């Protein structure tokens, strides 16, 4: 073949190969590889979080308590922010130019490339006005979220609230990112893993102005959000609402428990607040107002307080003394307006004397239970006061006083039961006796307990010696709440046979004793009043259960500076019992006095 012809064919072949290569590459770029399309159109890919709906919360009867409402967060990607009409933007969003600059600096500090919240929880009005002009503000887009709403303005302390996750959590838990919400208190905190659900993600195409242009590759890389579990609370919303009404214009707490399960039926802390105040953009401002309120509405008195139980503690003393074999149903002690060996101290009110155990409970005799405490402490089987005291303390702890019960709510405290170390420090080692700490026998001195602990003690008496750890959840999703911790019986150190006489005395206390002014027909209520001494006027205390046979509710009420237990705490408790068991009230005279009553000490 002609050499020049060969060269010609070779050159043509080279051009064909190069041309084919260019055509193949062009086909790949234009048809197959979408990333070149993204770059050519100045588009970017962003991972956009899909937030799940938080689980809703219902009461024990199926009444909706907590639900979700849509809100909108304004997001920003700093590197996409171009020259915009800042003043118009600030007018639409409702912020100042200084706030705009500060928020943008914070967003850049977080990341110039990754979207972050610029302004959270836009109102519907702001959202609507902004969306009409959002295309004019490059780098900004709106992300849908939900916020909690409360169907009724009750149970704020028990239900809890949600708020912004803090850096201590985002650093240790990869699930949470800056701008996320998390349960801060109450049920929302304890059951955060169940309520929050699972986030999803969308890979979105975003143009150079920050506008979302749809899912990349028709969403094949997207993941769906998984809704949080709904919770059924043990709370009876009607009973809770009634308790909060009765405690209006008072300071104190109520706790009510179902003895057969340990389920919390009501938990009232007064004063309380509307849980909707801690929702939305006004949350921080409202929280500050509540935090600085001198009546301390954020403080959960029903769970966290350590009130002196006063004469209600005589029930525990009667049980301990019987278990120790130093007290029987027929045991009698004198009262001469007070404890005779102590020179009439502690003092006592007028009543028949001497009394047996049941009548001593019914009349709430201070002298009687001072003798009882001394008999427990001065047993000859113990070689020292310290040894007998530790034995007494062991019994008291078994009733839930002085330790955490393990309730499924955050921040529970132990309460107050003194220790040997405390008295050694106060009086000196070996320098204290039963007479030194006699006030413990009538629930004074260093004794302290919350209404929840006192209600749990009543559940123990109702059950003749055992309790289930109090808890606020009945079901998670469609599954009955079956955690072993909350379905296991916890026994006290007192045998069941010792409860009968005590229960008779408590029944007499309501029928003909210290709480008889508030008794109602058709329900056999067992209870004990208390007048807890403290600086200022004494606290009004009552705990009890009903019915006497097969009890359905155990309750404790504390009204700060309410005076005698029969004045405020007993009628409130008995009204609550009737409301729960019968659904109506047979003593409107008492109800009106409790609803209208004001017991507010001067607050400095």
> What is the domain total for the residues?
2
Low-confidence stretches: 34-42
Mean pLDDT: 90
**Rg (CA only):** 34 Å
Give the fraction of residues assigned to helices.
25-40%
Overall shape: it is elongated
CATH-level-2 architecture of the largest domain: 3-Layer(aba) Sandwich
Q: What is the CATH H-level superfamily of the largest domain?
A: DD-peptidase/beta-lactamase superfamily
Largest sheet: 7 strands, mixed
Number of strands: 19
Total DSSP helices: 22
How far apart the termini lie comes to 116 Å
Q: In what range is the share of β-strand residues?
A: 15-25%
Which class do the helix and strand fractions yield?
alpha+beta
Notes on the structure:
The structure is a single chain. By secondary structure, the protein is an alpha+beta fold. Mean pLDDT is 90; it is low at 34-42. A hairpin with a 6-residue loop joins strand 18 (539-546) and strand 19. Strands 2, 3, 4, 5, 10, 14 and 15 form a 7-stranded mixed sheet that branches. A 5-stranded antiparallel sheet has the order 12-11-19-18-17. It folds into 2 domains: 46-233, Penicillin-binding protein 2a (Domain 2) (Alpha-Beta Complex), CATH 3.90.1310; 237-285 and 300-596, DD-peptidase/beta-lactamase superfamily (Beta-lactamase, 3-Layer(aba) Sandwich).
């Amino acid at each position: 073949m002609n050499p020049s012809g060969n060269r010609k064919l070779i050159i043509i072949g080279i051009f064909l190969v190069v041309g084919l290569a260019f055509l193949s590459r062009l086909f790949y770029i234009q048809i197959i590889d979408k990333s070149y399309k993204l770059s050519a159109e100045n588009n970017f890919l962003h991972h956009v979080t899909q937030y799940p709906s938080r689980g809703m919360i219902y009461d024990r009867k199926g009444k909706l308590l907590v639900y979700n409402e849509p809100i909108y967060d304004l997001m920003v990607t700093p590197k996409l922010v171009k020259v915009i009409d800042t003043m118009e933007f600030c007018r639409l969003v409702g912020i100042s130019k200084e706030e705009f600059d500060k928020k943008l600096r914070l967003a850049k500090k977080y990341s110039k490339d990754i979207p972050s919240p610029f302004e959270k929880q836009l109102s519907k009005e702001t959202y609507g006005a902004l969306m009409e002009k959002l295309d004019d503000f490059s780098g900004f887009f709106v992300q849908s979220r939900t916020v909690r709403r409360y169907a009724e303005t009750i149970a704020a302390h028990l239900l809890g609230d949600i708020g912004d996750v803090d850096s201590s959590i985002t650093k240790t838990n990869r699930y949470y990112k800056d701008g996320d919400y998390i349960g801060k208190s109450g049920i929302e905190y304890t059951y955060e893993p169940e309520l929050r659900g699972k986030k999803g993600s969308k890979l979105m195409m975003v143009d150079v102005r920050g506008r979302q242009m749809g899912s990349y590759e028709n969403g094949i890389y997207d993941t769906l959000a998984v809704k949080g579990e709904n919770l059924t609370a043990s709370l009876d919303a009607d009973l809770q609402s009634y308790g909060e009404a009765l405690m209006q214009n008072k300071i104190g707490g109520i706790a009510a428990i179902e003895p057969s399960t340990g389920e919390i039926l009501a938990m009232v802390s007064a004063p309380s607040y509307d849980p909707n105040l801690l929702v939305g953009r006004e949350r921080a401002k409202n929280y500050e107002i509540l935090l600085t309120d001198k009546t301390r509405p954020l403080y959960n008195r029903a769970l966290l307080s350590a009130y002196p139980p006063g004469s209600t503690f005589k029930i525990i003393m009667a049980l301990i003394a019987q278990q120790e074999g130093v007290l029987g149903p027929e045991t009698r002690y004198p009262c001469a307006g007070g404890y005779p060996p102590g020179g009439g101290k502690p003092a006592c009110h007028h009543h028949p004397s001497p009394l047996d155990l049941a009548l001593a409970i019914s009349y709430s005799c201070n002298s009687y239970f001072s003798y009882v405490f001394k008999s427990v402490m001065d047993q000859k089987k113990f070689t020292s006061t310290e040894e007998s005291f530790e034995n007494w303390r062991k019994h008291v702890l078994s009733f839930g006083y002085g330790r955490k019960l393990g309730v499924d709510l955050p921040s529970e405290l132990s309460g107050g039961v003194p220790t040997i170390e405390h008295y050694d420090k106060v009086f000196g080692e070996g320098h204290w006796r039963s007479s030194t700490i006699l006030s413990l026998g009538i629930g004074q001195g260093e004794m302290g307990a919350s209404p929840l602990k006192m209600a749990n003690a009543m559940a123990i008496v109702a059950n003749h010696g055992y309790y289930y750890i109090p808890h606020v959840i009945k079901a998670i999703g469609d599954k009955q709440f079956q955690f072993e911790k909350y379905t296991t019986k916890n026994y006290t150190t007192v045998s069941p046979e010792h409860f009968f006489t005590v229960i008779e005395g408590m029944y007499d206390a309501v029928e003909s004793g210290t709480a008889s002014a508030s008794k109602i027909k058709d329900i056999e209520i067992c209870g004990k009043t208390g007048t807890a001494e403290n600086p200022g006027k004494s606290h009004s205390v009552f705990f009890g259960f009903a019915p006497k046979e097969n009890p359905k509710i155990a309750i404790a009420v504390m009204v700060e500076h309410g005076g005698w237990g029969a004045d405020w705490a007993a009628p409130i408790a008995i009204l609550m019992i009737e409301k729960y068991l019968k659904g109506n009230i047979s003593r409107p005279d008492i109800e009106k006095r409790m609803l209208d009553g004001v017991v507010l000490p001067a607050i400095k």
